C-alpha cells in the first residue's frame, strides 16, 4: 500500500455560536459549520462544511469565537456513520480540526474584538 495524505485547510465564517460540550469521559468538543465561499464569475456561492474541534481548541472556541467570525481550520477529513432514531444509517464527512486560527469578528461584534489567535489540539 502506498503513502497517503489527509490534510485539509479551509477558511470561512462560522455559521452559529459555538456550543462547548463534553463527552461522557469529560473530553471537550465543539461541532460547527463553516460557510466557505466559491467564487463564480457572476455570483458567490457557499459550501457549509461540518467541523469538529477537541480539547483545548474546543475550549478556546467556546470562550472566544462568535457567529460570523472568520476562521481558518487545518486538520483532516474523516467519515463516520451513525444511526438515526428511526433506524436509518447516515454517513457524515467532516473536518477534524488540528488547528483553528481565529480571524476577524463581524463588524457588530468588533468593539469587543480580541487580537487574532490560534488554538491547537493539546
What does this structure look like?
This protein has 1 helix and 7 strands. It has 122 residues and is mostly beta strands. It has one domain (8-120): Nucleic acid-binding proteins (OB fold (Dihydrolipoamide Acetyltransferase, E2P), Beta Barrel), CATH 2.40.50.140. Strands 1-3-4-6-5 form a 5-stranded mixed barrel. A hairpin with a 5-residue loop joins strand 2 (21-22) and strand 3. It is globular and about 40 Å long.
Key phrases:
about 120 residues; mainly beta; OB fold (Dihydrolipoamide Acetyltransferase, E2P); 5-stranded mixed barrel; 1 helix; 7 strands; about 10% helix
Distance between the termini: 30 Å
Please tell me the CATH architecture by its name.
Beta Barrel
Q: Show unreliable segments.
A: none
* Tally of alpha and pi helices: 1
Average residue pLDDT? 88
Q: How many structural domains?
A: 1
Largest sheet: 5 strands, mixed, barrel
Order of helices and strands: EEEEHEEE
User: In the CATH hierarchy, what is the class?
Assistant: Mainly Beta
Strand order of the largest sheet: 1-3-4-6-5
Instruction: Tell the overall outline.
Output: globular
Strand content: over 45%
Alpha-carbon Rg, integer: 16 Å
Structural category is mainly beta
Amino acid at each position: 500500500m502506498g503513502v497517503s495524505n489527509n490534510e485539509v485547510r479551509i477558511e470561512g465564517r462560522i455559521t452559529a455560536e459555538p456550543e462547548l460540550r463534553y463527552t461522557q469521559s469529560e473530553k471537550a468538543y465543539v461541532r460547527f459549520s463553516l460557510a466557505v465561499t466559491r467564487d463564480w464569475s457572476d455570483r458567490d456561492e457557499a459550501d457549509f462544511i461540518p467541523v469538529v474541534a477537541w480539547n483545548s481548541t474546543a475550549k478556546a472556541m467556546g470562550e472566544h469565537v462568535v457567529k460570523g467570525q472568520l476562521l481558518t481550520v487545518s486538520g483532516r477529513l474523516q467519515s463516520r456513520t451513525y444511526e438515526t432514531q428511526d433506524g436509518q444509517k447516515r454517513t457524515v464527512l467532516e473536518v477534524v480540526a488540528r488547528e483553528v486560527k481565529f480571524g476577524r469578528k463581524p463588524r457588530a461584534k468588533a468593539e469587543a474584538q480580541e487580537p487574532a489567535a490560534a488554538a491547537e489540539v493539546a
